[in-house]
């Protein structure tokens, strides 16, 4: 009798993976509520559509690879990828953009390398960067808060009708990056994209994802090293290069912590156990690297928010970080970093 060839995670591990993924999905609920309250039903439509696309792509590729479809779909990893990707996309991104992003995330970010547990890059960020580079106009169309109704959302996402002029606005990170002459105080007063401390609406969303991240920390789904490393590095970098309210200011530490995808990245992206570093010291260095890169891209790069690029660049560095931060093996004085030929 031929036994089915099933790679890890096996039955017991799959159940644990399933529980972990369900808790991650639960932790995104505060952020989903905040985004829906601010920007309308576009977020929910994106979530449903991205989830359907992700499960479809996952099932198709598993069938082509002759792997048991039901077994792997039950671990909910494709669903988590879809949800994180949908939360990062603009709330009223057209249906085809979400389809392309999800297809690349599942196909090239995950299944190309063998599936769950073998991907060197964060799949959601792979899909996000592909559409960000390919369709910059659609990826920068963020609506003003409380502007779009449910019917308008459906019609716009699926191309049935266009939304009224003036429904979209530049984000606070966009406005700060293109600013050349106004002081921070003037920019804050004249631009509706700014809230009290960060981006209008982005403050509430970031605090909501922070709440979800604290829940995951309490459940010990990951250690504090990567998220705290990222947030601390971002805060320190923004403090070092903050020159007050001058026209060339890059924003205060509080502004950077409460704008863009900071908290989503810190607690839901850099904590990926597969594409990140493995040891506690390695996770801390990984998070610090992401935080530094996010600030560098925001302040001097070509994109207003650099979370996705920072994560993918540090994914490349994760094997090197693991090599130099390998913990000491029991019975050895120093960490074992490989073997010489002939040993």
Automatic annotation (TrEMBL):
Enzyme class: translocase
Name the record gives this protein: Ion-translocating oxidoreductase complex subunit D
Subcellular location: Cell inner membrane
Native organism: Pseudomonas segetis
Family, similarity comment: Belongs to the NqrB/RnfD family.
Pfam family membership, one: NQR2_RnfD_RnfE
Keyword annotations from UniProtKB, A to Z: Cell inner membrane, Cell membrane, Electron transport, Flavoprotein, FMN, Membrane, Phosphoprotein, Translocase, Transmembrane, Transmembrane helix, Transport
Segments traversing the membrane: 20-39, 45-64, 71-89, 197-217, 224-242, 254-271, 283-301, 307-325
Keyword Ubl conjugation: no
